[in-house]
Amino acid sequence: MPRNSPLDRLIDGLSSLKLTLLCLTLLMVLVVACTLAQVNLGIHLAVERYIRSFIVWWSPEGSAMRLPIFPGGGLVGGVLLLNLIFAQFRKLEFSWRKGGLWIVHIGLALLFVGEFATALFQVESNMAIEEGQTKSYSEDYRRMEVAVVDETDKEFNDEFGVPDTLLKSRPEITDPALPFTLRVRAYYDNAALSMRPAGAPPSIVTAGIGAGMSYEPRSPVTADGEQNTSVAVIEPVLKDGKSLGVFLVSNALGAPQGFIHEGRSWKLSLRLRQYRHPFSLTLKDFRHDVYPGTEIPKNFSSLVRLKDAAAGDDRDVLIYMNSPLRHGGLTFYQASFGKNDTLSVLQVVRNPAWTLPYLSCLLVSLGLLWHFGVMLLKSLGARKA
Amino acid sequence: MGLMKANSALLLPLCIVLLSAACREEGVTHARVPKEEAPAAGVPTMPGAMPALDAPAERPRGLAWTLPSGWKEIPGNGIRLATFTPPGGLKTEATVVALPGESGGELANVNRWRGQISLPPVDEAGMKAARTTVATKAGPAAVYDFTSEGAVRTRLIAAAINVQGTTWFFKLMGEAVATEAARPGFLTIIKGLKLDAAK
Closest to A255 (Cβ–Cβ): which among B39, B78, B150? Predict the structure, then answer.
């Protein structure tokens, strides 16, 4: 292969220190821009748009057109990871004396991989438990699902959750355990609900309390602490094509809606997406300690009973700041509280890559120890000589 | 170049992870949940959102009833003012709801009831044909009796009566056989309706 071929130039570019500096500069710009954008977008959306994206897009006011204006954190981080790997193999001597630097580079590469894996696989949710209450599910902060619940049994409910991603992407939803198909007539992340005025044109909603309501789509809210009023218009349809009614469900509607089919009582609702866990937590006690004579918080803690029949676990666990419970691939952090200190809110995080940053720090520390140890020995040897 | 090949081999698993993550799609979840853990119907509304419709309603006054022997009354919740259960553990129950004004009109309510047991809507003539009138001490009550189709049948008997600008709905619904057994007692309650002396 001749020198200065396009491949050589590409490899030279990918392993250059200039590219490293460019990427680090771009990352700094992204961090500043993302911080400023949080004012209008809220933390979640700002991070999604600037850090966990490959391209930062911009739309002119009042236009649906999107223009790429800057590389996103995903793209810059990916290039930086390639730069690190190429530089390592291209420029770093493969010897025991440079072994420490090799380990440091591998540790850094692992940090990048960990962030990519976190962005792709991490799921965050909340578990709000009152003292004495037992829960085996947590709820998403923002995402919704249509809950189709068979309430016929006296002891159990059969709950089917249809996530908002399916409601947006599929006109009909089927499940082998459901005796009907769910036809999605409309879904809006955010909408304004109101009672239908007299003389309004007929609604497509024919059943339930939604038949007397109207809805108007709105732009989704993104600011922290704000909640969308999502709306789904759904129609259960039997296999022979017979409709069981068109229902409007929304997380802002508390009234139960449903129908009876073949003697089974079905309820429909739209709620925050639920994640079921194969174990339960019972809140035994929530403590909100303050410094004596002040209202300044000193400690928040939740004493919970963890029951996991499959794992043979049945024990008390104290969750407090910086001391989460890790169980079943989930981490439970003390996040918030309410109801006169009788309600505890735990942040529930599923992140299969949570060990990677720790492993990365360990590798970087070991690598630096190795490298400086070698340098020290070399220096001592030079003095003796 | 050997090292570069090793480099490509390192990148391959990363690409597979990224692609598999990009292609994943969620499906319908299914869980069997004990009743005591099931969340209350609907989601608590956020501050500033429209008020929850299952919030406890103040009971409108103006109508009183007497239960036949063996029937029990359970205090209502949300917009439901009361629930009556027949004797014998029958798989049917009666509910009471009161709404201001015409509450959507008689035809809309009749079709709402029919929809609850998967029957197609009827027109004005169909509604009149299905209606029977029962005299009460508080005025005439329109009574409708519908039975669903299918292998397992559900029966719904509903009575609507307008008292001083408020429409009261009494609805008995459950398994067809059980509802037939509870029907005489339910009609006794309807016939015994009277103006509330406390009003």
Answer: B78
Structure token pair of residue B93: 């129950």
- Summarize pLDDT for B75-119 with one digit per residue, the tens: 776 667 888 999 988 888 999 988 777 766 788 888 888 888 878
ipTM: 0.74
The distance in angstroms from the start CA to the end CA of chain A is 45
The strand pair at B132-136 and B139-147 is best described as antiparallel
pLDDT of residue B50: 33
Q: How confident is the model at residue B40 (pLDDT cuts 50, 70, 90)?
A: very low
Query: Are B43 and A262 inside 8 Å of each other by CB?
Result: no
Sign of the dihedral defined by the CA atoms of residues A22, A57, A75, A48, in that order: positive
- B199 to chain A nearest CA, in Å? 28
**Residue B67 amino acid letter:** L
Asked if the Cβ–Cβ distance from A245 to B153 is below 8 Å, we say no
What do you get for the CA distance between the two ends of chain B, in Å?
95
Nearest CA to CA, how far is B138 from chain A (Å)?
28
Give burial (CB, 10 Å; 0-12/13-18/19+) of A167.
Answer: buried
Whether the CB of B39 is below 8 Å from some CB of chain A: the reply is: yes
Segment (H or E) for A227: none
**Number of residues assigned to chain B:** 199
Taking the C-alpha atoms of residue A83 and residue A81, their distance in angstroms, rounded to an integer, is 5
